[in-house]
Structure formats: structure tokens, C-alpha cells
Design goal:
By secondary structure, the protein is of the alpha+beta class. It folds into three domains: 134 residues, no CATH class; 191 residues, 2-Layer Sandwich (Zincin-like), CATH 3.30.2010; 34 residues, no CATH class. It is 56% helix and 8% strand. The strands form three sheets. Strands 1-2-4-3 form a four-stranded mixed β-sheet, sandwiched between helices. A two-stranded antiparallel ribbon has the order 5-6. Helix 2 crosses helix 6. The N and C termini lie far apart (51 Å). The relative contact order is 0.12.
């Protein structure tokens, strides 16, 4: 796996260099526009301002990025009492992935099924799952999702996504500031001298406007392209950890079949989820503008892994489904003689919509510290945390219970 991590890091460096050039280019061109005296000092000032914006946002991301991500997603940290199976599965995948510390576990109170991981390193990682995901998945499916998220952590994808996202955000912010200054500033960024300077300034202005429009688009396409490759790698790593491709394939199928909105998700947080939360059922996004590979394609690749659960097996299935010989797994990893057999799965439990909705609602209540009391008559009483009385009466049989 070390070569896989190193390959990921090389892709990260490549993306940072390209996006860094775009960021510095923005600062340079915009500085030239506002350089009234045409001394070149404006270009240097523009570069310094661009780098300063990126540095400040990066500092915030490194120190508080995970907390901001979890808070923006309305995720609440929970204990093992809320969902013991979730903690057991996370711990199993932690051990399989070779992580020394147990990630913090969060639940998002929504019926939409999804999950993501965050954290700058394996030692301070966190996983967040929705109540809807827990209500729909069986143990093998949940294991596949958690293995996918753990793979993002050990492959250093989460760190990359955080820092690259900040760089992309910096480019977008600087472009927006420039475009707004052009609109509200009357479109003039410098002096119009009589010796032809006005014509030169107009040319610089046009170049800057084109760059302001195209730079964020180019940076975003690069960001999405690398992000999609990391989803394939996380799928491959997850299967290697679980030895059961069908678990993750079935989980992805259930997640993609949901048409429940996730209002807490946005364009910044969307790439972090296992499936794009911004994509509603029935909508199709182009490969260029999507943060994730097509779900149907990921499922087909996983279900084509008949020969084993190793990385080479995933590469073979990937080439078969994609119809080309492009490499998603580093060559060194493919040369390793990994003999990882596919294990048997558990019996799949079929849940109807009513059962799933009830289970999801119970999980959300547990997250909100509701107390559950089982009456002898078979009634389950759900008592909110702010209930003021010391006892509650069963509405069915009249039995009084202490709270």
C-alpha cells in the first residue's frame, strides 16, 4: 500500500503546482490591471495578496478544517451506546487498515444515506455517517462504506482534498473579487495615459477578465479529475480490507437509489462524501463537472472482481469495465503477488420503506439523547431529553415508568 500512498502524494504535488501557478498568475494579472503607474509593482503586490489569501485559508483548514466540515454537515459526535455495530465496524476497519488510533465517530441526523471521512492524518481522523445510511445497510454493506472512508484516510486523500479545496477556494475568491471590482468600479483598473498606455491597459484588462473567468473553471476541472481517481483507489483499497466487493457495491447501489435531499451539503463539502450528495435522483452530471465517478460504473467494476479482492484484481475489473488499459493502480502494486480471496457475505436482509424510516428516526432520536423505554405490553416509549417529569405513562396499557 505504501506505493499507492506515494503515487497519491505525487498526484497531489502535481495538482498543487498547477493550481499554484494559476493562483500566482491570477495575482500577477490582476495586479497589473490596478498598476496605475505601470512600474511592475502592482504585479508583485497582486502575487503577494493572492499568496496571503491562500496562506490564511490554508491555516484555517489545517487547524480547524475538520471541525468546520463536521459542523457544516450538522454532524454530532456519538458514543458506542448510540450505535454499537457502527463502532464495532469502524474498529474492525481501523485494525485492518493499520491505523493506531480509533477515529471519532459522528452521525448526521438526516434520512439521506451517505458518509464521509475527515482529518489531516490517520491519528486525528473522524468518520461521519447519516442516520439514513445506518438504517438501510446491513453489516457487510456498512463495512464496505467504512473501509472506503478509512482508505481515504490512510491514502492521505482527506488531507489532499482539504488543502486542494482551500487552494481552489482561494482562486475562486480572488476571481470573484476582481470581477466584482470591475462591475462596481466602472470597469477601470488603471490610468489612461496619452502615450498609448490606455490601449495597453485595455489589453491587460481583457486578458485579466478572460483569466478571471477561465482560471476557476480550469482549477475546478483539475481538482475534480484527481478527486474522481481517488474514489476508484478508495474503492480498490476498501475491497482489499473487507475481502468482499459485493458489500461496497450493494451499499453504493442503495445510496444511489435514494432521492432524499441533503440540505446540509454544499459544493465545498460534496467531494468529501462517498456519493455526491448534490446529485438528485434522475439528474445526470457530466464527467467533467462531477466530483465523483459514475456510481453505476463503480458498481460494475466491483461486481466484475470475480478472481479475488486484491489491487490487481480491481485493476483487471477496472480495465474490463472501462474498455481501456489505463492504469488506476501503480505498477509496483500490480507486480506484488497478492492472493486475497473473496469471502462469503452474510444473508441480505430486505427492509421495506416503513421499517427503514422507523429505524432511521430511532437513530436520530438516540443522537438527540432520547430515552427508550420498552413497556411489557410491547409499546416502545420514546422520551425526549428535555422531558421534565420523573415518570411517563404508557398510552396503550396505562403502566407508569420511571424516566
Amino acid at each position: 500500500m505504501w506505493e499507492l500512498i506515494k503515487a497519491n502524494q505525487r498526484r497531489s504535488v502535481m495538482l498543487f503546482v498547477v493550481m499554484g501557478i494559476i493562483l500566482i498568475g491570477l495575482g500577477f494579472v490582476f495586479g497589473m490591471v490596478f498598476d496605475h503607474k505601470h512600474t511592475g509593482g502592482g504585479a508583485i503586490t497582486g502575487i503577494i495578496i493572492a499568496l496571503l489569501v491562500w496562506f490564511i485559508l490554508s491555516l484555517v483548514a489545517v487547524t480547524s478544517g475538520s471541525a468546520i466540515m463536521l459542523s457544516a454537515s450538522n454532524a454530532k459526535e456519538v458514543t458506542q451506546d448510540v450505535h454499537p455495530q457502527l463502532f464495532n465496524v469502524v474498529d474492525e476497519m481501523r485494525i485492518a487498515a493499520g491505523m493506531s488510533k480509533m477515529p471519532k465517530v459522528y452521525i448526521i441526523n438526516t434520512d439521506a444515506p451517505n458518509a464521509f471521512a475527515t482529518g489531516m492524518s490517520p491519528d486525528n481522523a473522524a468518520v461521519a455517517v447519516t442516520a439514513g445510511l445506518l438504517a438501510r445497510l446491513n453489516r457487510d454493506e456498512l463495512q464496505g462504506v467504512m473501509a472506503h472512508e478509512m482508505s481515504h484516510v490512510i491514502n492521505r486523500d482527506v488531507k489532499f482534498m482539504t488543502i486542494a479545496g482551500v487552494m481552489l477556494g482561494s482562486i475562486v475568491i480572488i476571481s470573484e473579487i476582481f470581477l466584482r471590482s470591475m462591475i462596481f468600479g466602472g470597469g477601470s483598473g488603471g490610468s489612461r495615459s496619452k502615450d498609448g498606455g490606455g490601449q495597453a491597459q485595455a489589453i491587460i484588462m481583457v486578458i485579466a477578465l478572460v483569466f478571471a473567468i477561465l482560471a476557476p473553471i480550469l482549477a475546478q476541472l483539475l481538482y475534480f479529475s484527481i478527486s474522481r481517481k481517488r474514489e476508484y483507489l478508495a474503492d480498490a483499497s476498501a475491497v482489499r480490507l473487507t475481502r468482499y466487493p459485493e458489500g461496497l457495491a450493494s451499499a453504493l447501489e442503495k445510496i444511489s437509489n435514494s432521492n432524499i435531499d441533503m440540505p446540509m451539503a454544499n459544493k465545498v463539502t460534496a467531494p468529501m462524501y462517498i456519493c455526491n450528495p448534490m446529485k438528485k435522483k434522475g439528474m445526470k452530471m457530466s464527467d467533467l463537472s462531477s466530483t465523483h465517478p459514475p456510481i453505476s460504473e463503480r458498481i460494475r467494476i466491483l461486481r466484475a472482481m470475480a478472481g479475488g479482492a486484491g489491487l490487481a484484481n480491481y485493476q483487471s475489473a477496472y480495465s474490463q469495465v472501462k474498455g481501456n488499459a489505463s492504469k488506476i493502480i501503480p505498477g509496483g502494486e500490480l507486480k506484488k503477488a497478492e492472493d486475497i480471496g473473496i469471502r462469503m457475505g452474510i444473508a441480505f436482509e430486505v427492509k421495506d420503506n416503513k421499517t427503514t424510516a422507523r429505524s432511521s428516526n430511532d437513530i436520530m432520536m438516540k443522537v438527540d439523547n432520547y430515552a427508550f423505554i420498552n413497556c411489557d405490553c410491547g409499546m416502545k416509549l420514546k422520551v425526549p431529553a428535555n422531558y421534565s417529569s420523573n415518570e411517563i405513562m404508557c398510552p396503550r396499557c396505562g403502566t407508569r415508568h420511571e424516566v
